[in-house]
C-alpha cells in the first residue's frame, strides 16, 4: 500500500508539474504575443503618414523601416493615397489623389526609386510629384514639386498686408531654411520677426502719456508682452513664452531639435499674424461702411 501510495503521489506531482509547465508556456506565449502586438502598434504609430512624408517633412527626410512596417511601406508606395495640399494653380487648399500603382522591385536588394504623382480633385491637370528612394531598410524623400518653399510662399502671401516687406522676407526665409534642414538659422529669422511685432506694439503704446519706455526696455520679453497686452493679439499675450522657446532654440537646441520644434513655433507666429489679418479686414470693412453711409447721407441732403 505504501509503494502504491508513493507511486500515486509521484504521478499526481508529475501531472501537477506538467500542468504548471503548460500554464507557464501559455503565459510566456501570451506575453510574447502581447509584446509583439505592442511592438507592432508602436511601429505603426511611428511610421509617417502619407500627408506628413509628402507635405510636411523636408526633402532628404529619412525613416528606418523595421520588420513591422514593411506592410505599411508597401501600402505607402502602391495603394491609392490622398493628401491635402495648397494647389498653386487653384490658389486654394485641395484634396489630391494618387492612383494605385504596381512596384515589383520595391524589395529588391539594390534599392528602389519610386514616385507618387498626385492630381488635384478639381482639375487633374494640376499635379504634385513626390519622389522616394528605399534601400537597406531606409526610406528617404529625395525630391518634390511644388517645393515646400513654393507652398510656404503661397501660404504666407496673406501676411503681406500686415508685415513690413523686410519682415515678410525674413519669415519666408525662415520657412525656406527649415525646408532645407537648417533649424537654428530658421529660428534666428523667426525671432527677428517676433521682436519686430513687439516693437511695433511698443511704438503704438509709447503715444500714450503714461507710457514708461525706460521700464519697458529694462523688462524681460515676457514682461514686455504683458505690458503691451492692450496692443497685441490675445494669443500673443497668452502664449508669451513662445519667445523663450525661440531663444532656447538659438542658444541650446540642436539642429534636429530646432527642426522638430519649428512647425509649432511657426504655427504660433502665424496665429499671431492671423489675428492681425482679421483685425485689418475688420477695420477695412468698417472704413468701407463709414464711407458708404457718408455717401448715402450726402445724397439725402
Identify the strand order in the major beta sheet.
1-6-5-4-3-2
Number of strands: 6
Compute the separation of the termini in Å: 129 Å
Question: What is Rg?
Answer: 30 Å
Integer average pLDDT: 80
Uncertain ranges = none
Strand content: 5-15%
Q: Largest beta sheet, briefly?
A: 6 strands, antiparallel
Estimate the helix proportion, in percent.
55-70%
Keywords:
301 residues; alpha+beta; 2 domains; 11 helices; extended
Description:
- This protein has two domains: 50-146, no CATH class; 151-289.
- By secondary structure, the chain is an alpha+beta fold.
- The radius of gyration is 30 Å and the shape is extended.
- The chain has eleven helices and six strands.
- Strand 5 (127-135) and strand 6 form a beta hairpin.
- Helix content is 60%, strand content 14%.
- 19% of the residues are buried.
What is this entry, summarized?
The protein is of the alpha+beta class and 301 residues long.
Secondary-structure topology with pairs:
Blueprint lengths: L1 H45 L3 H7 L5 E3 L5 H9 L2 E7 L4 E7 L13 E9 L6 E9 L2 E8 L2 H9 L8 H15 L3 H23 L7 H5 L3 H7 L6 H5 L3 H10 L3 H46 L1
Antiparallel strand pairs: 1-6, 2-3, 3-4, 4-5, 5-6
Helix pairs in contact: 4-5, 5-6, 6-10, 6-11, 10-11
Amino acid at each position: 500500500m505504501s509503494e502504491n501510495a508513493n507511486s500515486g503521489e509521484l504521478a499526481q506531482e508529475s501531472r501537477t508539474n506538467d500542468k504548471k509547465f503548460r500554464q507557464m508556456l501559455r503565459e510566456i506565449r501570451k506575453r510574447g504575443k502581447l509584446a509583439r502586438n505592442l511592438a507592432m502598434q508602436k511601429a505603426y504609430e511611428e511610421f509617417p503618414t502619407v500627408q506628413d512624408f509628402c507635405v510636411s517633412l523636408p526633402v532628404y527626410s529619412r525613416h528606418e523601416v523595421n520588420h513591422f512596417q514593411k506592410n505599411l511601406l508597401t501600402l505607402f508606395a502602391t495603394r491609392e493615397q490622398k493628401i491635402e495640399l495648397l494647389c498653386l494653380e487653384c490658389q486654394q487648399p485641395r484634396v489630391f489623389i494618387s492612383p494605385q500603382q504596381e512596384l515589383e522591385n520595391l524589395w529588391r536588394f539594390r534599392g528602389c526609386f519610386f514616385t507618387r504623382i498626385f492630381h488635384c480633385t478639381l482639375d487633374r491637370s494640376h499635379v504634385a510629384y513626390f519622389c522616394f528612394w528605399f534601400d537597406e531598410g531606409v526610406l528617404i524623400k529625395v525630391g518634390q514639386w511644388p517645393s515646400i518653399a513654393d507652398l510656404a510662399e503661397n501660404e504666407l502671401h496673406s501676411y503681406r498686408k500686415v508685415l513690413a516687406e523686410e519682415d515678410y522676407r525674413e519669415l519666408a526665409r525662415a520657412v525656406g531654411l527649415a525646408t532645407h534642414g537648417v533649424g537654428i538659422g530658421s529660428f534666428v529669422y523667426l525671432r527677428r520677426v517676433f521682436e519686430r511685432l513687439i516693437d511695433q506694439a511698443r511704438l503704438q503704446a509709447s503715444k500714450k502719456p503714461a507710457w514708461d519706455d525706460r521700464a519697458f526696455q529694462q523688462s524681460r520679453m515676457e514682461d514686455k508682452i504683458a505690458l503691451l497686452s492692450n496692443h497685441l493679439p490675445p494669443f500673443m499675450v497668452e502664449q508669451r513664452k513662445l519667445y523663450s522657446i525661440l531663444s532656447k532654440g538659438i542658444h541650446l537646441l540642436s539642429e534636429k531639435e530646432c527642426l522638430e520644434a519649428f512647425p509649432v513655433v511657426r504655427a504660433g507666429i502665424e496665429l499671431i499674424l492671423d489675428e492681425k489679418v482679421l483685425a485689418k479686414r475688420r477695420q477695412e470693412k468698417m472704413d468701407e461702411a463709414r464711407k458708404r453711409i457718408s455717401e448715402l447721407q450726402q445724397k439725402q441732403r
